[in-house]
Amino acid sequence: MAALRSFKIIYGLLQLLLLLLLQDLVEPSQPQIHGPQGRITAGSWASFQCSASESSKDIHVNWMKNGERIPSNQTKISPTEFKGEGTYRVTSSMEILLGQGDVKSQLSCQMHHNSTQKFSEKFRLGDVLRVPPKMRLATIPPSPIQLNARVMVACHAESFYPNDAKVELFAKSASSRTGTVSSRISNRDGTFSIKIYLEVLATKSRNSSMFHCQVQRDSQPLLIETTSLFITRPLKISENSQEQSIIFLCIALFLSRVAILLFISCLFLTKVFGRKRTKSRSITSQEVRQSGTSS
After folding, report:
1. Which of 204, 194, 212 is CA-nearest to residue 230?
2. Domain limits of the chain?
3. What's the chain look like in SS3?
4. Are the C-beta atoms of 5 and 95 separated by less than 8 Å?
5. Residue 82 dihedral angles phi and psi, to the nearest 5°
6. Topology agreement, domain 28-130 and domain 134-232
7. Mean pLDDT of 19-44
8. Whose CB among 75, 81, 250, 281 lies 3.0–4.6 Å from 92's, allowing a Cys bridge?
9. pLDDT by residue (tens digit) across 99-142?
């Protein structure tokens, strides 16, 4: 009986030692980050998952964005088999709000083991981010435009990502004639901008005409911006001189009225001061007479 007990104890110790050796032989796998299947529009939340096969449950998962730690929603550790040996499947998930400034941002998942080992994986947020363009459409100079003057219709599609936008500018009455792309630039934040213009002559037939600027992107709704061109008739020389004459006449009438009011005010003040002076003289003569009589 004693020999049997000793055999069981030794057998159990050998099994424990074998498990420890197998755990050391099974190397932790490199973590993998799985993001959204398609692109997420800026201002929306995106879900990410980091997973790896580990030999021990003693593991910690950290999420980082641009080197700064961010909280995770849940970390799950479940037993599984890897290459016929017992391992653990580590899965950590988190959500992050994407913005326009995340085109160049990096998300990283770090897994820390009890053996002071650290494995990490990086994910570029620009790979799943979509930033819609900011559109501006205007005429240079602004409406109303003088008849037969040259005018430039300019459309700006600014700060979009990725660089898959196609911009078109055309008049509604003549859609076959499109504008010319003057520049396509890369902004500092990783987004892109396009400027397109169309030069036209402000004839009578173009008065109140409409211009469309549209932006096409892969699998996205069409964006359209519209503006109208208003034309004004320039003044003729006779009309201009007539208008100046009316202005001069109004000024003359105003000045004459002011002069009349000043003249009337002067007469009134002269009469008032004259009466006061006459009254003061009469009082003085009466006092002189009274003083002579009393003497």
Report:
1. 204
2. 28-130, 134-232
3. CHHHHHHHHHHHHHHHHHHHHHHHHCCCCCCEEECCCCCEECCCEEEEEEEEEECCCCEEEEEEECCEEECCCEEEEEEEEECCEEEEEEEEEEEEECCHHHCCCEEEEEEEECCCCEEEEEEEHHHCEEECCEEEEEEECCCCEECCCEEEEEEEEEEEECCCCEEEEEECCEEEEECEEEEEEECCCCCEEEEEEEEEECCHHHCCEEEEEEEECCCCCCEEEEEEECEECCCCHHHHHHHHHHHHHHHHHHHHHHHHHHHHHHHHHHHHHHHHHHHHHHHHHHHHHHHHHHC
4. no
5. -135, 115
6. yes
7. 75
8. 75
9. 999 999 999 999 887 656 778 899 999 999 999 999 999 999 99
Identify the residue whose tokens are 């402000």. 202
Tokens for 272?
A: 């008032």
Fold of 28-130: Immunoglobulin-like (2.60.40)
Question: Residues, the chain, total?
Answer: 295
Can you read off the two tokens belonging to residue 92? Answer: 């950590």
Which of 68, 107, 76, 113 lies closest to 93 in space, CA to CA? 76
CATH number of 134-232: 2.60.40.10
CB atoms inside a 10 Å sphere around CB 224: 12
35 to 9, 40, 93: CA distances (angstroms) = 49, 10, 10
Residue 19 has pLDDT above 50, yes or no: no
